[in-house]
Amino acid sequence: MNRVLAVAWREFVSTALTKGFIIGAVVVPLAFIAMIPVIVMLTMSAKGPAVEGEVAVLDRSGSLMPAVERELSQEAVSQRRERTAKAAADQMDQINPLGPGAAPAGSTEAALTAALGSAPRFHVASLPPDADVEAEKSLLIPTAAEQRRLAIAVIAPDAIVLAPDAKAFGGYELFVRPKLDDRVIGDIRAGLNAAILQERYRVNGYSPEEIRRLTSIAAPETREITATGERSSTEGLTAMLPFGFILLLMISAMVGGQYLLTTTVEEKSSRVVEVLLSAVSPMQLMTGKILGQMAVGFVLLFVYTGLGTGALAVFGLTDLIGPVKLVYLFVFFVLAYLMLASFMAAVGSAVNELREAQSLMGPVMIVVMLPYILWLPITRDPNSTLAVVLSLVPPMSPFAMVMRLTSTQAQEIPTWQVLLSIAVSAAGAYLSVWAAAKVFRVGLLMFGKPPNFRTLIRWVRMA
Amino acid sequence: MRPEDRQQAKGVVVTDAIVMRGVSKSFGPKQAVIDMNLTVPRGALYGFIGPNGAGKTTTIRMVMAILFPDAGQLSVLGRASAVESKDRIGYLPEERGVYKKMRVGAFLRHMGRLKGVPGRGLDARVRAWLERMDLADCERKRCEELSKGMQQKVQFISAVLHEPELLILDEPFSGLDPVNTRLLRDLIREQHAAGRTVIFSTHVMPQAEQICEHIVMINKGRKVLDASLPEIKARFDPHTLLVEPLDGSAEGVLAGVDGVRSVSRVDGALEVALEHGHDPHAAIRAIVRAAPVSRIELRRPTLEDVFIEIVQGKATNGDEAALRAELRGEAEAVAAGEGER
Fold it and tell me: What's the CA gap between B26 and B42, in Å, rounded?
């Protein structure tokens, strides 16, 4: 046992207590999290260049020009942009996991306004009704000398007044020059739409104010009622939380497993392995290595769950995870890690260099990634047949079960299913460690041709 | 188990370090070791010799319980398997390496812990050995910073650090310069003098000749010789004379001397092969009478000669030259020279 611990300790020290690990696995992710607000701010403050140019309008309806000129004025365009920004900002505040009001009031809006850039300046030109549309269109093609015309709008004759026997109004066709910023196109369309609506209201005798009143509904944000009080809905978190958990589980298990693969291949290729085998049995060596890297995984798990629960605690949302779920997380981490790690150890012992390991790892990674790919269906309906089956079939079981457990949907996961999943995963872990030990023993001293799956299976049978 | 069997097993514990009975091992179609019977008594200094690929390393790995025999029985230090007596065995494998990124001191302490050396005194022991090996200033260096020869010395320390009863060294001299070869030779003799059983393998016969008391020769997976050095010298009685004639005409004359089988010119001297069973002293007298000579001596059979003689039935002349070169370590010298550059 001492020997196993000595191997484990060396494994842990040589992996976790290195500058590379501390920086790569702990400092960088933390710094990245700290950087997110800065990155968001930077992206949002990026402005598009101001656009200026001619918009030609061929008004076949005959009465639209004044409204078009009004609605495409720079003032009207920038007002519309502000309204859009405000609506988007409200939306974003709603889904902000920290709840509305977490961001300083108006900051999101300001950021969005900035993001939309300064409003373009349109010069509206009216084309005579008999103008040659094809000839006008050709003016959109930029020449070396100038490229001032941005767009041509051709308004249908029945855009304002319904044609006899027609069920719907006509609209307009818009032609733009190549590579026009889609936000500018949006501005033109919005301006034309507004102009047409206003003109229709006027012709039919409605007041635009009246229409706006009739079509807007006041509905404040959804509130969630919990034992500890009222708070804004956690809809966003409901989807994000299982994703976060599964990512955590995946990263911790994968990092440990990946290091295990690397150190095993290194021991083999540097030929230190035979020296080791003169002191410990292959089983002791493998056990020690698996335990050592499990400790590495635990370090990651502790660091990140600590941060995560800390963050949730700050916003009073700890009841979303709860201690029982954390215990389950750790249990399933151990099981997931054991399955992954024993596979990594087997592959590491069988190949001569890391490159050869890739081809063996691909198929297994896909199987393990399956629940990860299916996270949305699983978390939306954690008791669906798909979710239940996945959570009972190793090696996906730990990942799928953690997803089900952390889903904040109202459904309770039957305890027997959780326990069965643990039992099945434990059996899977035992089986994979057993098989890996056999491959490990044979593989360590085999050099030469890189093995394939069939060889590995033969070694399991042979040993 | 019958009482006499137990008695016998007990006897093994007392007297023999290694016992192999009919041990065979094959890898796929290749038979690496065939029906090996071997007894190494405690306190002996044994050399396993044979050309590359003869089965030396496989035999040693089976002794170390790193490989397991397909057939036959094996006992090491009185136990059925080395697994149970690993702490009492020191092993320097042929395929050896170090943790490149680990510091020398840390590596040796790790190996010591794995070998069950008690934590207290481990530091002092490591330091003493590093001093002894002229590596005292390397304790804080990373293993990858050391030269290959230095790494090999570090590995030797890791093999003897726990003061094993049985020391197995697989090709311990490969890659060492003459100074370190001598240092290692002295250390091996010292370990032997301290009463430890030492087994080392080499494909370089002169090295074995210099150190060993007892030789086990392996060729193509089979043991072809198992005898002490004096026995070998006695058994393979000399029947070659080295003659340096005073003048060049002697060659023809010598061929006619009674008992001479053939005469060949080797490096300016004449090698006179005698007929089997012919008394060499009589031949010397006859030669001196027949022609004036400046030097005449009885050529002692080297291990190389013995080995060649044993395997000769299977080898043609071209093979023999290559085999001789290999057994003298010439191929290795070339390889080492390449390594230096």
Answer: 28
* Inter-chain residue contact A276 with B93, CB threshold 8 Å: no
Pairing between strand B89-92 and B166-170?
A: parallel
> When comparing pLDDT for B240 and A332, which is higher?
A332
Say whether A357 sits in a helix, a strand or coil. Answer: helix
Q: Residue A278 is nearest to which of B67, B93, B100, comparing CB atoms?
A: B93
- To the nearest whole Å, the CA of B165 is away from the closest chain A CA by 14
- Chain A residue with CA closest to B112: the answer is A279
**Full pLDDT tens readout for chain A, 463 residues:** 688 999 999 999 888 888 888 887 778 777 877 777 777 677 666 555 677 888 899 988 888 888 898 888 888 888 888 887 777 777 666 555 454 444 555 555 565 555 556 778 888 888 888 888 888 888 888 776 666 688 999 998 888 888 888 888 888 999 998 888 888 888 899 999 999 998 999 888 888 888 888 888 887 777 777 776 666 665 566 666 777 777 888 888 888 888 999 899 988 888 888 888 888 888 889 999 999 999 999 988 888 887 777 777 766 666 666 677 788 888 998 999 999 899 889 888 888 888 888 888 887 778 777 777 887 788 778 888 888 898 898 888 888 888 888 776 656 788 899 899 999 999 999 999 988 888 888 888 777 677 777 777 877 776 5
Nearest to A279 among B61, B99, B115 (CB): B115
Give domain status of residue A31, yes or no. no
Long-range contacts, stretch A280-284, CB < 8 angstroms, 24+ apart: A280/A3, A280/A4, A280/A7, A280/B86, A280/B114, A281/B83, A282/A437, A282/A440, A282/A441, A282/A444, A283/A437, A283/A440, A283/A441, A284/A3, A284/A4, A284/A7
Spell out the alpha helix ranges (H) of chain B: 3-15, 56-63, 104-114, 122-132, 148-160, 178-193, 205-211, 229-235, 250-255, 280-290, 303-311, 317-327, 330-340
Distance separating alpha carbons of residues A453 and A77, to the nearest angstrom: 64
Q: What share of chain B is helix, strand, coil (3-state, %, to 5)?
A: 45, 25, 30
Please report whether residue A310 resides in a domain: yes
Length of chain A: 463
Rounded mean pLDDT, B308-328: 64
Correct CATH for B3-233 of 3.90.110.10, 3.40.190.100, 3.40.50.150, 3.40.50.300: 3.40.50.300
Residues of chain B numbered 147-166 and touching chain A (CB < 8 Å): 155, 158-159
Return the CATH architecture of domain B237-298: 2-Layer Sandwich (3.30)
Please indicate whether residue A295 or residue B254 has the higher confidence score (pLDDT). A295
Contact B97 A275 (CB under 8 A): yes
The residues in B 58-97 lying below 8 A from A, measured between CB atoms, are 61, 64, 66-67, 83, 86, 89-93, 95-97
Looking at A169, A191, A221, the residue that finishes a domain is A221
- Domain of A305, in residue numbers: 231-462
Q: Is A43 inside any structural domain?
A: no
Instruction: Count how many domains chain A has.
Output: 2
**Neighbouring C-beta atoms of residue B165, cutoff 10 Å:** 16
Are residues A205 and A287 both part of a single domain? Answer: no
Domain residue limits, chain B: 3-233, 237-298, 304-340
Residue A281 has its nearest CB partner, among B83, B110, B116, at: B83
Looking at the partner chain, which of B66, B102, B114 has a beta carbon nearest the beta carbon of A274? B66
Which chain B residues are Cβ-neighbours of A2 within 8 angstroms? 113, 116
Give, as one character, the DSSP assignment of residue A104.
Answer: P
Query: Of A167, A194, A221, which residue is a domain's last?
Result: A221
**Test mutation, A278, A280, A462, chain B, max B CBs within 10 A:** A278
